[in-house]
Amino acid sequence: MNLNLYLGFLFSLCTALSYSANINFEVPTWRNGAKAAHTIAHDDYCSGSVPGVENTALPILNERGLTASIGLIAGACKDDDWSKLKKHLAKGHELFNHSLTHVGMLEAGSLKPIAGWNNEKEIASAHQLVKDKLGYAMQFMAYPSDLATPEAKAYLLTQSDYLGARAAKHIYDGSNAGINSANNIDPFFIKNDVYWHDGKWSLYKPAGGNMLIQHVNAALENGGWSYRTMHGVADGSWEAVPKDEYIAYADYLQKKVASGELWLAGPSEIIRYQATREHCPLVLIGNTLKLKQNNELCQRYSSAITVDLHIANELAGRFTQNHKPLPSKQLANGKYRIQFNPILGDLYIN
Ligand SMILES: [Zn+2]
Protein backbone atom coordinates (compact mmCIF):
# COMPACT_ATOMS: atom_id res chain seq x y z
CA MET A 1 0.00 0.00 0.00
CA ASN A 2 1.50 3.36 -0.92
CA LEU A 3 1.61 6.19 1.60
CA ASN A 4 -1.25 8.18 0.05
CA LEU A 5 -3.53 5.18 0.08
CA TYR A 6 -2.50 4.39 3.63
CA LEU A 7 -3.20 7.93 4.84
CA GLY A 8 -6.50 7.95 2.97
CA PHE A 9 -7.43 4.70 4.66
CA LEU A 10 -6.56 6.07 8.11
CA PHE A 11 -8.52 9.23 7.37
CA SER A 12 -11.63 7.35 6.30
CA LEU A 13 -11.42 5.17 9.39
CA CYS A 14 -11.28 8.26 11.59
CA THR A 15 -14.25 9.88 9.85
CA ALA A 16 -16.35 6.73 9.73
CA LEU A 17 -15.94 5.75 13.34
CA SER A 18 -16.64 7.74 16.41
CA TYR A 19 -16.58 6.75 20.05
CA SER A 20 -18.17 7.77 23.29
CA ALA A 21 -17.91 5.88 26.55
CA ASN A 22 -21.03 3.80 25.92
CA ILE A 23 -21.66 4.02 22.22
CA ASN A 24 -19.78 3.94 18.97
CA PHE A 25 -21.15 4.15 15.46
CA GLU A 26 -20.26 3.54 11.87
CA VAL A 27 -21.84 4.64 8.58
CA PRO A 28 -21.40 1.75 6.11
CA THR A 29 -20.17 2.64 2.64
CA TRP A 30 -23.39 1.38 1.03
CA ARG A 31 -26.90 0.98 2.41
CA ASN A 32 -27.29 -1.83 4.94
CA GLY A 33 -23.61 -2.65 4.74
CA ALA A 34 -23.71 -3.96 1.17
CA LYS A 35 -20.32 -4.48 -0.52
CA ALA A 36 -21.30 -2.60 -3.66
CA ALA A 37 -24.10 -0.78 -5.45
CA HIS A 38 -25.66 -1.29 -8.87
CA THR A 39 -28.15 0.59 -11.06
CA ILE A 40 -30.24 -0.75 -13.93
CA ALA A 41 -31.11 1.88 -16.55
CA HIS A 42 -33.24 1.54 -19.69
CA ASP A 43 -33.16 4.51 -22.09
CA ASP A 44 -35.64 5.79 -24.70
CA TYR A 45 -38.92 4.88 -22.97
CA CYS A 46 -41.95 6.36 -24.81
CA SER A 47 -40.05 6.47 -28.12
CA GLY A 48 -41.85 3.40 -29.43
CA SER A 49 -38.49 1.81 -30.26
CA VAL A 50 -38.06 -0.13 -27.00
CA PRO A 51 -41.32 -2.05 -26.36
CA GLY A 52 -39.27 -4.76 -24.63
CA VAL A 53 -38.68 -2.49 -21.64
CA GLU A 54 -42.40 -2.53 -20.89
CA ASN A 55 -43.22 -6.04 -22.10
CA THR A 56 -40.15 -8.04 -21.12
CA ALA A 57 -37.66 -6.25 -18.85
CA LEU A 58 -39.96 -4.71 -16.24
CA PRO A 59 -42.05 -7.89 -15.74
CA ILE A 60 -38.81 -9.90 -15.25
CA LEU A 61 -37.60 -7.37 -12.66
CA ASN A 62 -40.97 -7.05 -10.91
CA GLU A 63 -41.24 -10.84 -10.51
CA ARG A 64 -37.94 -10.76 -8.65
CA GLY A 65 -38.65 -7.64 -6.58
CA LEU A 66 -35.91 -5.68 -8.39
CA THR A 67 -36.10 -2.00 -9.36
CA ALA A 68 -34.77 -0.16 -12.39
CA SER A 69 -34.48 3.40 -13.59
CA ILE A 70 -36.33 4.38 -16.75
CA GLY A 71 -35.12 7.15 -19.07
CA LEU A 72 -38.00 9.06 -20.66
CA ILE A 73 -38.15 10.85 -23.96
CA ALA A 74 -40.94 12.81 -22.34
CA GLY A 75 -42.20 14.60 -25.45
CA ALA A 76 -43.04 11.23 -27.01
CA CYS A 77 -45.08 9.88 -24.07
CA LYS A 78 -48.76 9.22 -24.78
CA ASP A 79 -51.66 8.87 -22.35
CA ASP A 80 -51.15 5.12 -22.23
CA ASP A 81 -47.45 5.58 -21.37
CA TRP A 82 -48.23 8.00 -18.55
CA SER A 83 -50.62 5.54 -16.91
CA LYS A 84 -48.06 2.73 -17.19
CA LEU A 85 -45.37 4.99 -15.73
CA LYS A 86 -47.59 5.75 -12.76
CA LYS A 87 -47.67 2.02 -11.99
CA HIS A 88 -43.90 1.71 -12.39
CA LEU A 89 -43.36 4.52 -9.91
CA ALA A 90 -45.65 2.76 -7.44
CA LYS A 91 -43.40 -0.32 -7.73
CA GLY A 92 -40.34 1.76 -6.80
CA HIS A 93 -38.76 2.29 -10.22
CA GLU A 94 -37.06 5.66 -10.75
CA LEU A 95 -37.71 7.90 -13.77
CA PHE A 96 -34.93 10.01 -15.24
CA ASN A 97 -34.79 12.74 -17.85
CA HIS A 98 -33.57 11.60 -21.26
CA SER A 99 -34.62 14.90 -22.94
CA LEU A 100 -37.89 16.05 -24.49
CA THR A 101 -37.29 14.92 -28.10
CA HIS A 102 -33.94 13.10 -28.07
CA VAL A 103 -32.57 15.47 -30.69
CA GLY A 104 -28.80 14.92 -30.89
CA MET A 105 -27.10 17.43 -28.66
CA LEU A 106 -23.99 18.02 -30.66
CA GLU A 107 -21.94 16.95 -33.61
CA ALA A 108 -20.08 13.96 -32.27
CA GLY A 109 -16.41 14.76 -31.97
CA SER A 110 -16.91 18.50 -31.86
CA LEU A 111 -18.38 20.96 -29.39
CA LYS A 112 -20.74 22.34 -32.02
CA PRO A 113 -24.37 22.02 -30.92
CA ILE A 114 -26.75 20.42 -33.40
CA ALA A 115 -29.48 22.76 -34.65
CA GLY A 116 -32.60 22.13 -32.63
CA TRP A 117 -30.98 21.51 -29.28
CA ASN A 118 -32.29 23.94 -26.71
CA ASN A 119 -31.63 23.52 -22.97
CA GLU A 120 -34.92 25.03 -21.79
CA LYS A 121 -36.87 22.80 -24.13
CA GLU A 122 -34.93 19.54 -23.87
CA ILE A 123 -34.16 19.64 -20.15
CA ALA A 124 -36.54 21.99 -18.33
CA SER A 125 -39.74 21.48 -20.33
CA ALA A 126 -39.27 17.69 -20.29
CA HIS A 127 -38.94 17.97 -16.53
CA GLN A 128 -42.06 20.12 -16.23
CA LEU A 129 -44.10 17.82 -18.44
CA VAL A 130 -43.37 14.83 -16.20
CA LYS A 131 -44.18 16.90 -13.14
CA ASP A 132 -47.52 17.94 -14.66
CA LYS A 133 -48.46 14.44 -15.81
CA LEU A 134 -47.24 12.38 -12.86
CA GLY A 135 -46.60 14.82 -10.01
CA TYR A 136 -43.05 13.45 -10.02
CA ALA A 137 -39.82 15.45 -10.03
CA MET A 138 -37.04 13.69 -11.94
CA GLN A 139 -33.65 14.17 -10.33
CA PHE A 140 -31.22 12.63 -12.79
CA MET A 141 -30.34 13.47 -16.41
CA ALA A 142 -28.95 11.30 -19.20
CA TYR A 143 -28.26 13.32 -22.35
CA PRO A 144 -29.08 11.73 -25.73
CA SER A 145 -26.15 9.48 -26.73
CA ASP A 146 -24.34 10.74 -23.59
CA LEU A 147 -23.05 13.69 -25.59
CA ALA A 148 -23.29 17.14 -24.03
CA THR A 149 -21.92 20.62 -24.52
CA PRO A 150 -20.31 22.43 -21.58
CA GLU A 151 -23.25 24.88 -21.75
CA ALA A 152 -25.81 22.11 -21.32
CA LYS A 153 -23.88 20.70 -18.35
CA ALA A 154 -23.73 24.16 -16.77
CA TYR A 155 -27.45 24.65 -17.43
CA LEU A 156 -28.32 21.42 -15.63
CA LEU A 157 -26.52 22.65 -12.51
CA THR A 158 -28.98 25.56 -12.36
CA GLN A 159 -31.96 23.16 -12.21
CA SER A 160 -32.71 22.79 -8.53
CA ASP A 161 -34.37 19.35 -8.70
CA TYR A 162 -31.32 17.75 -10.32
CA LEU A 163 -28.89 15.80 -8.17
CA GLY A 164 -26.80 14.25 -10.88
CA ALA A 165 -26.27 13.18 -14.47
CA ARG A 166 -24.83 10.32 -16.45
CA ALA A 167 -21.27 11.00 -17.57
CA ALA A 168 -21.38 12.81 -20.90
CA LYS A 169 -18.60 13.94 -23.18
CA HIS A 170 -18.36 15.64 -26.53
CA ILE A 171 -17.16 12.51 -28.26
CA TYR A 172 -18.37 8.95 -28.03
CA ASP A 173 -15.28 6.89 -27.32
CA GLY A 174 -16.27 4.82 -24.29
CA SER A 175 -14.05 6.82 -21.94
CA ASN A 176 -17.01 7.65 -19.71
CA ALA A 177 -17.39 3.93 -18.97
CA GLY A 178 -16.24 2.65 -15.61
CA ILE A 179 -17.03 1.98 -11.97
CA ASN A 180 -17.85 4.83 -9.58
CA SER A 181 -15.76 4.56 -6.46
CA ALA A 182 -17.60 5.06 -3.18
CA ASN A 183 -15.55 7.90 -1.78
CA ASN A 184 -15.00 9.96 -4.88
CA ILE A 185 -18.30 10.40 -6.72
CA ASP A 186 -18.93 13.36 -8.98
CA PRO A 187 -22.75 13.24 -9.08
CA PHE A 188 -22.85 15.08 -12.43
CA PHE A 189 -20.46 12.61 -14.07
CA ILE A 190 -21.73 9.15 -13.16
CA LYS A 191 -19.73 6.63 -15.15
CA ASN A 192 -21.67 3.83 -16.76
CA ASP A 193 -21.38 0.93 -19.14
CA VAL A 194 -23.54 0.72 -22.27
CA TYR A 195 -24.67 -2.67 -23.52
CA TRP A 196 -23.26 -3.56 -26.96
CA HIS A 197 -23.46 -7.11 -28.37
CA ASP A 198 -19.80 -7.09 -29.28
CA GLY A 199 -18.64 -5.08 -26.27
CA LYS A 200 -17.68 -2.05 -28.38
CA TRP A 201 -16.98 0.94 -26.07
CA SER A 202 -17.72 -1.34 -23.11
CA LEU A 203 -15.31 -2.45 -20.42
CA TYR A 204 -16.38 -6.04 -21.08
CA LYS A 205 -16.29 -8.47 -23.97
CA PRO A 206 -18.64 -11.38 -24.69
CA ALA A 207 -15.74 -13.83 -24.35
CA GLY A 208 -15.74 -13.06 -20.61
CA GLY A 209 -19.33 -14.35 -20.27
CA ASN A 210 -22.54 -12.39 -19.67
CA MET A 211 -21.39 -8.75 -19.89
CA LEU A 212 -24.22 -7.52 -17.66
CA ILE A 213 -23.04 -9.85 -14.89
CA GLN A 214 -19.39 -8.88 -15.47
CA HIS A 215 -20.33 -5.27 -14.66
CA VAL A 216 -22.09 -6.31 -11.44
CA ASN A 217 -19.03 -8.34 -10.42
CA ALA A 218 -16.69 -5.44 -11.16
CA ALA A 219 -18.56 -3.37 -8.56
CA LEU A 220 -18.48 -6.22 -6.04
CA GLU A 221 -14.74 -6.68 -6.54
CA ASN A 222 -14.01 -2.95 -6.17
CA GLY A 223 -16.60 -2.07 -3.52
CA GLY A 224 -17.92 0.51 -5.98
CA TRP A 225 -21.07 1.43 -7.88
CA SER A 226 -21.67 0.08 -11.36
CA TYR A 227 -24.37 1.69 -13.51
CA ARG A 228 -25.72 -0.37 -16.42
CA THR A 229 -27.19 1.41 -19.45
CA MET A 230 -29.43 -0.56 -21.81
CA HIS A 231 -32.04 0.14 -24.44
CA GLY A 232 -34.66 -2.54 -25.14
CA VAL A 233 -34.77 -6.25 -24.35
CA ALA A 234 -35.59 -8.79 -27.07
CA ASP A 235 -37.32 -6.18 -29.21
CA GLY A 236 -35.08 -5.35 -32.16
CA SER A 237 -34.18 -1.95 -30.69
CA TRP A 238 -30.67 -0.51 -30.92
CA GLU A 239 -28.30 -3.04 -29.26
CA ALA A 240 -31.21 -4.81 -27.55
CA VAL A 241 -30.29 -7.30 -24.82
CA PRO A 242 -31.28 -10.91 -25.61
CA LYS A 243 -33.94 -12.20 -23.22
CA ASP A 244 -31.89 -15.13 -21.87
CA GLU A 245 -28.98 -12.82 -21.01
CA TYR A 246 -31.35 -10.43 -19.26
CA ILE A 247 -32.96 -13.24 -17.22
CA ALA A 248 -29.54 -14.52 -16.13
CA TYR A 249 -28.62 -10.96 -15.08
CA ALA A 250 -31.87 -10.51 -13.12
CA ASP A 251 -31.44 -13.90 -11.41
CA TYR A 252 -27.89 -12.97 -10.44
CA LEU A 253 -28.95 -9.58 -9.10
CA GLN A 254 -31.74 -11.18 -7.09
CA LYS A 255 -29.25 -13.58 -5.50
CA LYS A 256 -26.72 -10.86 -4.66
CA VAL A 257 -29.38 -8.55 -3.24
CA ALA A 258 -30.84 -11.37 -1.11
CA SER A 259 -27.39 -12.24 0.31
CA GLY A 260 -26.91 -8.59 1.34
CA GLU A 261 -23.81 -8.20 -0.84
CA LEU A 262 -25.40 -5.81 -3.35
CA TRP A 263 -27.49 -2.68 -3.03
CA LEU A 264 -29.66 -2.21 -6.13
CA ALA A 265 -31.15 1.27 -6.47
CA GLY A 266 -31.85 4.13 -8.84
CA PRO A 267 -29.16 6.75 -9.36
CA SER A 268 -30.69 9.53 -7.27
CA GLU A 269 -31.01 7.31 -4.19
CA ILE A 270 -27.38 6.23 -4.45
CA ILE A 271 -26.15 9.78 -5.07
CA ARG A 272 -28.11 10.99 -2.04
CA TYR A 273 -26.68 8.26 0.17
CA GLN A 274 -23.08 9.01 -0.79
CA ALA A 275 -23.54 12.77 -0.56
CA THR A 276 -25.14 12.45 2.89
CA ARG A 277 -22.18 10.36 4.06
CA GLU A 278 -19.79 12.93 2.71
CA HIS A 279 -21.49 16.26 3.42
CA CYS A 280 -23.46 15.53 6.59
CA PRO A 281 -20.75 14.36 9.04
CA LEU A 282 -22.14 12.96 12.30
CA VAL A 283 -20.87 13.38 15.81
CA LEU A 284 -21.74 11.60 19.03
CA ILE A 285 -22.10 13.83 22.06
CA GLY A 286 -22.96 11.81 25.12
CA ASN A 287 -25.97 9.75 24.09
CA THR A 288 -26.94 11.99 21.18
CA LEU A 289 -25.96 11.44 17.56
CA LYS A 290 -26.16 14.64 15.55
CA LEU A 291 -24.88 16.63 12.60
CA LYS A 292 -21.40 17.93 13.21
CA GLN A 293 -22.02 20.80 10.83
CA ASN A 294 -24.82 21.71 8.49
CA ASN A 295 -24.06 23.06 5.04
CA GLU A 296 -25.66 23.68 1.68
CA LEU A 297 -24.71 20.34 0.16
CA CYS A 298 -26.02 18.47 3.18
CA GLN A 299 -29.31 20.36 2.89
CA ARG A 300 -29.55 19.60 -0.82
CA TYR A 301 -28.80 15.87 -0.76
CA SER A 302 -29.63 14.67 2.73
CA SER A 303 -31.48 11.37 2.96
CA ALA A 304 -31.68 8.51 5.42
CA ILE A 305 -28.36 6.69 5.65
CA THR A 306 -27.56 3.45 7.40
CA VAL A 307 -25.95 3.86 10.80
CA ASP A 308 -24.68 0.85 12.76
CA LEU A 309 -24.39 1.42 16.50
CA HIS A 310 -22.62 -0.61 19.16
CA ILE A 311 -24.00 0.25 22.55
CA ALA A 312 -23.06 -0.73 26.08
CA ASN A 313 -25.07 -3.38 27.91
CA GLU A 314 -26.60 -0.95 30.38
CA LEU A 315 -28.44 0.81 27.54
CA ALA A 316 -31.81 -0.48 26.39
CA GLY A 317 -31.26 -0.08 22.64
CA ARG A 318 -34.03 2.47 22.13
CA PHE A 319 -33.64 5.18 19.50
CA THR A 320 -35.66 8.38 19.43
CA GLN A 321 -35.72 11.20 16.86
CA ASN A 322 -37.90 14.25 17.49
CA HIS A 323 -39.50 12.44 20.45
CA LYS A 324 -40.62 9.63 18.17
CA PRO A 325 -39.16 6.12 18.22
CA LEU A 326 -36.91 5.39 15.23
CA PRO A 327 -37.17 1.76 14.07
CA SER A 328 -34.01 -0.30 14.48
CA LYS A 329 -32.84 -3.77 13.63
CA GLN A 330 -30.79 -5.71 16.14
CA LEU A 331 -27.84 -7.28 14.31
CA ALA A 332 -26.14 -8.88 17.30
CA ASN A 333 -25.90 -8.42 21.03
CA GLY A 334 -25.42 -4.66 21.52
CA LYS A 335 -25.30 -3.97 17.77
CA TYR A 336 -28.16 -2.16 16.09
CA ARG A 337 -28.83 -0.81 12.61
CA ILE A 338 -30.96 2.26 11.86
CA GLN A 339 -31.80 4.37 8.80
CA PHE A 340 -31.19 7.93 9.95
CA ASN A 341 -31.64 11.25 8.17
CA PRO A 342 -29.59 13.68 10.25
CA ILE A 343 -31.21 16.90 9.06
CA LEU A 344 -34.57 15.74 10.43
CA GLY A 345 -33.32 15.96 14.03
CA ASP A 346 -30.88 14.57 16.56
CA LEU A 347 -30.97 10.92 17.56
CA TYR A 348 -31.24 10.15 21.23
CA ILE A 349 -30.02 6.72 22.33
CA ASN A 350 -30.94 5.05 25.60
ZN1 LIG B 1 -31.39 7.48 -26.02
UniProtKB/TrEMBL annotation:
This is Polysaccharide deacetylase family protein. Residues 51-146 form the NodB homology domain. Residues 1-21 form the signal peptide. The keyword Nucleotide-binding does not apply. It comes from the Bacteria. Keywords: Signal. It comes from Deefgea chitinilytica. The keyword Cell wall biogenesis/degradation does not apply.
